[in-house]
Amino acid sequence: MGKVIILMMDSFGVGGAKDAAAFDDSGANTFLHIAQNYGGLSLPNLEALGLKKAGMLACGIEAPLTAGTAELNLRGGYGCMEEISAGKDTISGHWEMAGVPVRKDFGHFPLAYPSFPAEMVQRICKRAGISGILGNKAASGTVIIQELGEEHIATGKPIFYTSADSNLQIAAHEEKFGLERLYQLCEIAFEEVKPYNIGRVIARPFVGEKAGAFVRTPNRHDYAVSPFAPTVLDKAKVAGLEVVAIGKISDIYAGSGVTKKVKASGLEELWNATLAEARVLKGDGIVFTNFVNFDMDWGHRRDVKGYAEGLKYFDSRLPEIEGVLGEDDIVFITADHGCDPTYKGTDHTRECVPVLMFGKNTAEHSLGRRKTYADIAETIAAMFGLEEFGVGEVMR
After folding, report:
1. What is the pTM of this model?
2. How do residues 55-96 score in pLDDT, each as one tens digit?
3. Fewer CB within 10 A of the end CB, N or C, for the chain?
4. pLDDT (tens digit, 9 = 90+) per residue, 128-151?
């Protein structure tokens, strides 16, 4: 057997989703459009692993990457995966790749003001002992704290907002409102959103003294519903394997199937934590990392330059993975949805995602166009001798 390392590049879609039109995302292609608009995007290690070919399998167009010398000596399978879950949100993508597609979409709050039912807000305020809320609309988290941060400090009212995802997000000043108080408020809110079939409540603490200077801290915390059925993480844990969740992975699965939670934020810290945990895990198990910055910092903010430079940094760290791999270890590089920074709006985009699968004993070959993200779960289950899911097919 060996260990499995999953490098989940949050929002790094490669276009070509057959049902993109149903989501009003026709033509969205995160990878291709960043490569076309950045000018001089070089990802030699990802390209050597087959990223450009994976993009071709998805959309039929070759991304214009500039030449570079790969330092990663490993090669493996490359392909793209279609999503069968009903939504294009974070939870749906993650659960599907772990073997549990979300066939019926979660509930969503309206994007127009007011987003939240008055009776629900009243219950939350009463239980939490707050006089009211600010916001109550769909918004960019970085924008709304500049807009309402000063009023929040003056009144003590937390900022409630949502997005096209199934969520309620609550922003509050980490020091003046209090971090633990924010977490307690989110716990109350998480109970109150259950009748509306909402997937997550997200705590968004920030610091700063005035508009223009407010910044979010790394102490975000997601309160998510548990997967509807056992995921590959659950099955691995029951089998006695270690399952290490890095970044927001544990929150996304509501802690289910996780044996160790590692807090990290930012590409550098996430990479460092991944390599450190992979070195410690000498036997069989899973190390699963979500590189959230692609989505949170650059996709949603429509920052092509930031996204491209994040990709270049990610690529530059890939050669270090060789030093932590045993003979039978396997690495997956994939994504959970798209978030094309050149597309309209600020929401996720329905796209195929890449799947790159490699190790010390894998040869370069095409994995083709996969019919579901769940092929990752089926492959891991087969590797560890776990019960199959009956949803996808094993990648070889």
Report:
1. 0.93
2. 999 999 999 999 999 999 999 999 999 999 999 999 999 999
3. C
4. 999 999 999 999 899 999 999 999
CA 266 to chain centre: 13
